[in-house]
Amino acid sequence: MTDIKIYLKQKAELINTYLKNLIPKGTPKELFDAMEYSLTVGGKRIRPILIIESSKAVNPDVDIEDFIDVALSVEFIHTYSLIHDDLPAMDDDDLRRGKPTCHKVFGEAIAILAGDGLLTYAFELISGNQKITPDKLLKVINVISNSVGVYGMVGGQAGDILENFKDIDFIHTHKTAKFISGCCQVGGILAGASKKEIENLKNYGLYIGIAFQIWDDILDEIGDEEKVGKKLHKDKEKNKITYPSVYGLDNSIKMAKDYVEKAKQEVKYLKNPDILISIADYIVSREL
């Protein structure tokens, strides 16, 4: 049986190797330095991994070299979102993965532009792919745009920062789960999945995305900072609503596990679902 923690770490290292060759260079140097700084401070690279593993789940013989640039594009988008999340107008964070946030190093204006640059460069990467057919790339662009725009991540972030907006399910479904779902759909599209398989991957991504966020809320509440590897209780300090604060701790744990089971049901009949199933289980096995 695959040790999913080791497997994900190995895949992240592979993603980092590819990533180095795709980081743009240019002038003004400060802008490109800020983009590179934020891309390379670390991270689990779960979104590009999900594109790769979702494609393999429906077509085990798929060649990831054909679309590695498309898979990497979502890491550019994810990094843009983190830069903007950390800004004083949003979450006002000084550290990201133990290092000073982009605006702390390069200033707010360059940080904003670095985020903008990463977001738009992602679509340059996708549209510049020469190995995937244009009709597939168009579907990919549509899915990603929807999952990270006003009907996805941007809408969820808006709900998260509005003090009078208290719909926790909307916030986390849109801010986190829709992007993860989009990545899973993209993997299916690139591998030539059927409409039904893409729907299964879409639902799988939504369910693991919600489970991931619920478990993060639980870890923030009762986790061990040393084991989790980041500062905890930030949501409580900022008076943000969380799943435990709305549904209670025990119910939140049950909800996360139920979403994982629903996710596994969605993909278990795909040709090669084992890694996706292991990823789902891993979400609620992270140490408290």
Key terms:
288 residues, mainly alpha, Farnesyl Diphosphate Synthase, 15 helices, Polyprenyl_synt_CS, metal ion binding, Geranyltranstransferase (Farnesyl-diphosphate synthase)
Folded structure, characterized:
The chain is mainly alpha-helical and 288 residues long. The chain has helices spanning 4-22, 29-39, 46-58, 68-85, 102-106, 108-127, 134-148, 153-161, 168-190, 195-222, 225-228, 234-237, 243-247, 249-267, 274-283; strands spanning 95-96, 99-100. The protein has a single domain (4-283), classed as Farnesyl Diphosphate Synthase (Orthogonal Bundle). 70% of the residues lie in helices and 1% in strands. A two-stranded antiparallel sheet has the order 1-2. Helix 7 (134-148) runs antiparallel to helix 9, helix 8 (153-161) packs antiparallel against helix 9 and helix 9 packs across helix 10.
Concise description?
The protein has 288 residues and is mostly helical.
List the uncertain runs.
none
> How are the strands of the biggest sheet laid out side by side?
1-2
CATH T-level fold name: Farnesyl Diphosphate Synthase
Helical region count? 15
Largest sheet: 2 strands, antiparallel
- Gap between N and C termini: 24 Å
